[in-house]
From TrEMBL:
GO terms for molecular function: hydrolase activity. The lineage of its organism: Bacteria, Bacillati, Actinomycetota, Actinomycetes, Streptosporangiales. Residues 98-179 form the Calcineurin-like phosphoesterase domain. This is Metallophosphoesterase.
Length: 501
């Protein structure tokens, strides 16, 4: 079994907070992950078919989101099958154990496979993994699990649980329910066309893919070991780990909870044991607060903050980087974490303003990639793509610019860099400094532009969490994957926090 304490101590010395090499800049040798990939295709959103297939996002925004109703049907069908009424699962993990959390994994290209070597290394001896949202891009299809789930995690020798993300819902959750809950497809309810918002939506809405069962059987054989198997009772669940509970919620397409799930969450959260929430939408992200509404009143965060419910951390995917907000609630500190760096194209951190949300001080906030590296990454990408060499900012310049903008001490030591007008304009155009318009570096970039970049060169700035539980405390560590061999051999430790239990 890997000695995570020792790996973390080494990882801390070689992180992006220590050197540019630690961030994966100046990569000499590309990682072994290349050999694991089924092909060298880059995941593409620009394909009109891909966009058409993920149209449910747009339709849900225009005509309302039918997912809560579909979720009720999935949940009712599972209850009929006789699953635990509170969707509890128990895994015997012993007194001291560890597990991994990966967010937003399923692109099936270099950005996903680059995470695998480090994940396998630090995952050795862990009891299980959890995928926090967006298991499969673009639409969660059951026919795409082979290369985006079973193949990448074939050598991970423990069960993998998951909560769905919005992308998994673009398939009506059909793929997710089939693979994780072993559920039969829902009977499609055909309604005659009505000239109404829901009628229009029904007409255009993408139905779940019919799953090619023999092909899925073949794919599942890539994870054949008994110790790799696990079945979830529903898309939301409680994992009983003895002294700790892991509570997974399903935030659907729009990022809220239906009434039935809200009641369930209140019920299972009344257990006094310490808990970690796993969600498809982070509660604190990019210096914003999203408490996650529950149908009929109240929010998920009301429950997380309630001292009686004893949540110590809330971890969410959806945004493809790592962020940690230690929020003081009464006499406790709850760790609100974004962990969406497990496989999809990186979302910028350099657009995160100076942090003050929830009373968190900028100096307590952590993110990966560092804002300066994020700015340099996007400047490189756009300067190449747009053939505008002046747009490029070195990592050192990126760090100097973002430290000046945010007003913090640069998180990585570097020589004093004079800030020129050219650098300022580049930073503005890339969203690091305020300007009414800037080039897309977040969701829009990911959706419409990332594939144009054919980004097959490290660093990828991917990350995953290693969580360990011992008698008195819980440790959450964020390890990086850059796609570079050096960081596969010694995964950098980008952040670590200890929580007393
Ligand atoms: Fe995502």
């Amino acid at each position: 079994m890997v000695d995570v304490g020792a790996a973390a101590a080494r990882g801390k010395q070689v992180s992006s907070r220590v050197s540019e090499d630690g961030a994966g800049w100046n990569c000499q040798t590309i990682g072994t992950f290349q050999a694991l990939r089924p092909n060298t295709k880059t995941f593409t959103w620009l394909n009109p078919l891909t966009l058409w297939r993920s149209r449910n996002e747009v339709l849900a925004g225009l005509f309302g989101d039918p997912s809560p109703e579909v979720r009720r049907r999935w949940v009712a069908a599972q209850r009929e099958r006789g699953v635990d009424p509170d969707f509890r699962i128990k895994q015997d993990v012993g007194e001291e154990y560890s597990f991994l959390v990966l967010g937003d994994t399923g692109e099936g290209d270099a950005s996903q496979y680059a995470v695998i070597p480090g994940m396998l290394k630090l995952g050795e001896g862990t009891s299980f993994s959890v995928v926090a949202s967006d298991v499969i891009y673009p639409t969660g299809s059951g026919n795409e699990y082979r290369d985006k789930f079973f193949r990448p995690y074939k050598d991970y020798a423990a069960p993998i649980y998951a909560v769905p993300g919005n992308h998994d819902w673009y398939d009506g959750l059909g793929g997710f329910m089939r693979v994780f809950c072993d559920a039969k497809p829902l009977h499609v309810q055909r309604q005659g066309f009505r000239l109404s918002p829901s009628g229009l939506r029904g007409l255009l809405w993408k139905k779940p893919d019919a799953i090619d069962e023999p092909a899925l059987d073949e794919a599942q054989k890539m994870r054949p070991l008994p110790e790799q198997q696990a079945t979830l009772p529903a898309p939301y669940w409680v994992l009983d780990l003895g002294r700790l509970l892991l509570v997974g919620i399903d935030t659907g397409i729009r990022g809220d909870l239906d009434r039935e799930q809200g009641e369930w969450l209140r019920r299972v959260s009344a257990d006094p044991r310490p808990k970690i929430l796993i969600t498809g939408k982070p509660i604190y992200v990019r210096n914003e607060y999203h408490p996650c509404a529950i149908e009929g009143g109240g929010t998920v965060d009301d429950i997380v903050r309630d001292p009686a419910c004893n949540y110590v951390a809330a971890i969410g995917g959806d945004v493809h980087n790592y962020e940690r907000f230690p929020v003081r609630v009464g006499d406790r500190t709850i760790q609100y974490i974004v962990s969406g760096g497990g496989g999809a194209f990186m979302h910028a951190t350099h657009t995160i303003p100076r942090v003050d949300v929830g009373g968190v001080h900028e100096d307590e906030f952590r993110c990966y990639p560092l804002r300066g590296d994020s700015l340099s990454f996007y400047s490189l990408l756009y300067s190449k793509r747009l053939h505008m060499r002046w747009l490029y900012l070195t990592p050192e310049q990126g760090l100097a610019l973002t430290a000046k903008q945010v007003g913090n001490t640069p998180p990585r030591h570097s020589a004093d860099v004079p800030i020129t007008a050219r650098m300022r304009w580049a930073a503005r155009l890339l969203g690091a400094w305020p300007m009414p318009f800037h080039l897309p570096v977040g969701r829009i970039f990911h959706r419409y532009i990332s594939e144009l970049s054919d980004w097959d060169t490290p660093p990828f700035f991917k990350s995953f969490l290693h969580v360990s539980v011992t008698a008195g405390h819980l440790k959450i560590r964020c390890f990086a994957a850059t796609g570079c061999l050096q960081q596969e051999v010694e995964p950098p430790l980008e952040d670590e926090v200890e929580i007393p239990l």
